[in-house]
Amino acid sequence: MRHANTNRSPLLAVLCAGMLGAAASAQASLVLSWGGDYVSTYQGVVGTPTSSGGASVWAYSDTVAKSPDASVYSGPKFYGAFSLINASGAGVPTFDANRFGVANAAGTDGLRFGASAMPGEGAITMRGLVFFKKEDFANGSSGTVTLDNDTVFSLNVTSSLSNSTSPNVRRYQFAVEALVGGVWGWYISNDYSSGTTTLTLSDAGVWAPYIVSTGATPLEAAPTPGNAAYSVAGSLFEDIRSVGYYFNYRQDGTAANFVTQFKVEATVVPEPGVAVLGGAGALALLLRRHARKMR
User: Fold this and answer.
1) Which of 129, 133, 149, 243 is the most exposed place for a label (fewest CB within 10 A)?
2) CA-CA distance, 236 to 174, in Å (whole number)?
């Protein structure tokens, strides 16, 4: 018996180190996949825009979802902000009815956002930020979400109506709400698309800080891709609590876009307590099996 007990101590140490190390390890995995059959008929975003001085705005909120009610929409909740500005500052542009929400498309439902200038008025600029919160992705994990070289972002744009493909005028970019240097803030990716395509980012990427206001004009123009502002490496993100995308349009008549898929693969590190509990449970199972063999 003494011989068995003597051998168990180093075995225990090896198992503890192995199991706790395995529990603490993490690798990139699919944390969010938006796209599928979520609605049976068109469902508009939640809320009502406010209009004044040639602008119409859906205010930013990370507490009130813009996604339709769960009784008519089965996808993950999304949040956001939208602004629509008339260049002339006179007539108030309008978000298009039946083109500002989740559209039904037989298994490939899409996020559709459209707007129109007032007749005889100038060009309109439409910006939007659509995002998903950690509690609604990463399987509800409260652990740390980070980016590395195995990270993949993917956005599928199937229709895009604007009068220019210039990155200064029409573009889609990824957006994250991340913790950097102990401070939370929004960041926009240097990777972008200016047309109907699948936009991908296949590593940690380079990002620029982005200001989102809770006031009357929530969305400023994002820095132009390639600008010196894009100097924050995604690997510097200490944690990510929201993922999404940003779009910017300028159009003389009607502006619209249709997104059918948004996916994110990132690294999720479990909270220390969760990792220890998971490792301890697996360790106990292995020790029980070992004890049986030693009898």
Assistant:
1) 149
2) 16
Q: Are strands 152-161 and 198-201 parallel, antiparallel or unpaired?
A: antiparallel
The string over 124-159, giving b where at least 16 C-beta atoms fall within 10 Å of a residue's C-beta and e elsewhere, is bbbbbbbbbbbebbbeebebbbbbeeebebbbbbbe
Q: Is the pTM for the entire model greater than 0.90?
A: no
Strands 198-201 and 183-193 turn out to be: unpaired
Residue the block writes with tokens 């199937």:
158
Do 47 and 82 touch, CB atoms closer than 8 A? no
Helix axes 272-294, 2-24, angle to 10 degrees: 150
Summarised one tens digit per residue, pLDDT across range 23-52 is 345 678 999 999 999 999 999 999 988 887
Residues 86-96: tens digit of each pLDDT: 876 666 778 88
Beta-bridge mates of residue 129: 81, 246
Question: What size, in residues, is the chain?
Answer: 295
Rg (CA), the chain: 24
**CB within 8 A of 260, min separation 6: which ones?**
35, 105, 108, 109, 110, 111, 156, 158
The residues, any chain, with a CB within 8 Å of residue 222's CB and separated by 6 or more, are 171, 173, 188, 208, 210, 246, 248
Q: Give the distance from CA 77 to its chain's centroid.
A: 11
- 65 Cβ contact partners less than 8 Å away, ≥ 6 residues apart: 46, 77, 78, 79
Going by the DSSP 8-state scheme, the letter that residue 229 receives in this structure is T
